[in-house]
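We append the chain.
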Amino acid sequence: MKNSKKKVLQNCAPHEINKVPKKVKDQLKPIVQKLLNQCSNSKVLSRKLEWDEMKTNYALLQTIQELEKKYHFPVTDRSEHWEKFYEWCSEHGAKFSCVKVKKISDGNFGVVAEEDIKEHEPFLTIPRKMMMSEISAKNSKLGPLISKDPILQHMPNIQLAMHLLMEYLNPDSFWKPYISILPSTFDTVLYFTLEELQELQGSPVLDEVFKILRSVARQYCYFFQLFQNDSYAKSLNIGQYFTYDLYRWAVSAVMTRQNVIPTADGSQQVTSLVPFFDMCNHINGKLPLLRAISQLECDEIW
């Protein structure tokens, strides 16, 4: 958690040099266990004690990051991948003729209309098969682990983050063109420095921030151990590359981009990442937002 502006990974196929060696994992084990104990047995009785606990957790995470930093993935420029993303969208049935993604400020990208769009006129159509969701996660190699792991079963956002991680690490992933245009870092609290956290002292949001930091640190520790000890989890392509920075990236991507979408039969709502649509600052249309069961259409934007 050293530098909120530092980009530590992005969109590069995994190589041997990115694998965390057993020797390093052995060094990490006692630190991870200590952090897990801290996060799992938190009994904060005052704001000062809570802050002291946060500093202890932060220091442990810094030690973990220092040990893992050699195995981070190199950063690539998002702007280099948009054309392939557009090609992938078109190839799989997305319709976006009157909008484009453009750099809008501070290196950020957003959807911009290239012509006037009439009210209630769909400007973006994304087929369901392009979405990453709880359903695609359960239908992937992650499915058997989801079916038996209580955290993945009951936390769809974590399920989706782990699905994103697995696809990120798969150089032949169907979603590679989408994953390649995701940001390499985020402005979530998971990237805050200790100094930035200190600026929240006295703010009513601080309790929630501490809960998020504690929860994600605990999840990292849990999955670190799961990928070491569970035979099926070890067979997936995640554990050998698993780091705190990689995990907070996936969690932050889901945290900032997730949408809840009806299933094809309308029987339930599922947490999803919807390529292209997740670049919009949007106001939901007056249903027919889902105008057909196999695709998502968006008809308002601001």
